[in-house]
Amino acid sequence: MRAVLMAGGSGTRLRPLTCDLPKPMVPILNRPIAEHIVNLLKRNGITEVIATLFYLPDVMRNYFSDGRDFGVQMTYAVEEDQPLGTAGCVKNIADLLTETFLVISGDSVTDFDLKAAIEYHKQKGSKATLVLTRVPNPIEFGVVITDDEGRIKRFLEKPSTSEIFSDTVNTGTYILEPEVLDYLPANEESDFSKDLFPLLLEKGEPMFGYVADGYWCDVGHLEAYREAQYDALHRKVVVDYAYPETSDDVWIGDNTQIDPTVQIHPPVMIGNNCRIGPRTVLEPGTVIGDNVTIGSDADLKRPIVWNGAIVGDEVHLRACSIARGARVDRRSHVLEGAVIGPLSTVGEEAQISPGVRVWPSKQIESGATLNINLIWGNTAQRNLFGQRGVAGLANIDITPEFAVKLGAAYGSTLKQGSHVTVSRDQRSISRMVSRSLIAGLMSVGINIQNLEATAIPVARSVLAQMGVAGGIHVRLHPDRPDYVLIEFFDEHGIDIPKGKEKKIEGAYFKEDLRRSPIHEIGTVAYPTGVVSTYTTAFEKHVNVDAVTNSQAKIVIDYLYAVSGAVLPQILGKFDCDAVVLNASLRQMALSNDEREVMLSQLGQVVQALRATFGAQVSANGEQLILVDEVGTCIRGEVLTALMSHMMLTTHPRGTIVVPVHTSGAIEHIARRHDGHVIRTKANPTALMEACQTNPNVVLGGSGEMGFIFPELHPGFDAMFCIAKLIELLSLQQRSLEQVWSELPRMAYRMQTLRCPWTVKGALMRYLVEENPPERLELIDGVKILGDNPDDWILVLPDAGEPLVHIYGNSQSREWLDSTLDKYQQHVQNFIEKEQGIIKETVSL
Q: pTM higher than 0.70, yes or no?
């Protein structure tokens, strides 16, 4: 059998280690990853290897040559003009693959029994067999769902936390029959997971998943790179060691000189031709390459030191990576997770902070403290975007230098000369961050339409009319007053999709930033009439006569936000009697307790004035809480039901779009009005997209997130919601209290449990496997249906925190209480069991 070793990757998430090295040639225990794979193939009786190359192909060819020295026959296929993708590069050599063959990724460390996988493939009569493994946190990988017979039923490519229905993931190792390549186009980029396998599934070809026992690590980022080394040193994976074992768990190469006073605490690996000076301490997990010189009194705790590096006297290295030929001078400190690129120099008594990356051939001055990446970077992260935009602690995570680079990364994904809007709330921190974003955008040739301080609904609504490529809004996070939230909009004002977020992250992490010459630097303009443009659209979609003749008296609490400057102008045109509270601007964010006090005060004012209703506007104009005429707060699920009922009363047979966890009362309301309900994933982007792509949507969102009126603009808009409420109450000649009394009564509860990230995937798989398919809905999380249509339990992992939410819905309070408590205990027991397994594994 022949094996195809896919070795074309550039390893962008391993930068700066891979600036001059393809990822498969990155060393693990002083041998390239590709050599460990070749050894694995050889142990499984596979000695004919075809390597597909693209990035720096000569590095691998020069190392392996014809493969004779490694006990195999190596041939190479180079993608000359463009990368063809994982499947395209194999299609490119289809004439060499005339019988069953194996494909293996060149960037993972494993000791799988490939013979067993091949035998399984043959027994099943499979056309394509994917070698799978179980991982505790599958969010970074492609999840594969199989039935009891092992037949593949579904693929999820790098799912969100709430889409993890299994913890069996694609390891990038496949056993294929040659005829499956007929499904692929020639000389075109294609991918196994995204293109070929879904097509085979659609065509009904026999395709199976083999769940392999053993070790597997996808060396996809720097943390995984270090962990693979430590695991191999601790014998968690079967590998061939490059040097003899001179004592228990200590491997030392030839011609290496170690002073007798050196302390070596196993496991440790030291390469050929090394020199280690007096009183140096090598802690467990230390890996030292060939031709490395280490001075006296150095303290090495689990560093990965590549060939040819020089480490001075009294240097401290802590779980870091020191690349080929780098130099760390006397008394310097390189701390956890830091990377020193090839041929770089760290001066005497310098300190490299945790997670900092230094690119190749750089010089750090003596005595310097480096706490950002050198070249123009910040502390390395694995993801920028969360559930909603980019968020972090104000002036700690979200700093001016971070924002400059983020702006440049976003701008580098757009065409040079494009225009984008930038807007913000009124806070000084938001002004600082938005100016930094603008600087970054200008540096890559993007022109700015600076909307300055304005409400988010205004910023979204003008985007489409301005003909820009997108927009950015900066504000304090609505749920975290110490956090800044940076949101990115597409050309229509919708939050950008995940694919666009990944492009921005890619440009940010691999520093793939465009540099514009002086004459192409972007410009900044300050458009006028932005609020009037919003007001015109606002008036167009409100029944002005109904609002004007409503004789409504309303009280609005703006919580000292910039939206307070917009809505009063509009309501003034409608002759509304609006009493405004807290409309001045304030720099400090309000705590939740302060908001609740102000909400109570709002209710007292509404009662005292005998107003029609009150509204507290938050989240820079996106969200609101209502207060009815007797001072009772209306929020959350009740607010969602109330708004849906009022909109469908005026627009029967309309469509309502709500998140998956919304109370089942919505379906009852829709049936009253011959309407339709669409449930989406529990994130703002999904709601916005569904509102735009489905016909006849009259309302979207929820009391928790805010409400969308698609005819106005694609985002949430509390200001328009207030005007719409005045209109609907006038047309329907009812009060909020009367509308509330008409709502269906539904038992609904939610509970939240702590759930480690490493357990979420296994929990979702467990719930899917424990319940029959006809009782499951997998829109977002796992919804388990009861015997009655209104009875369901939803287990939904939190996208941003180590939490899991359990929602319950029923017309029977008894059923809900007993079932929700049962599932809470069920989930809690599973989490505790899995944590116990993980702790036991770690201790072993």
A: no
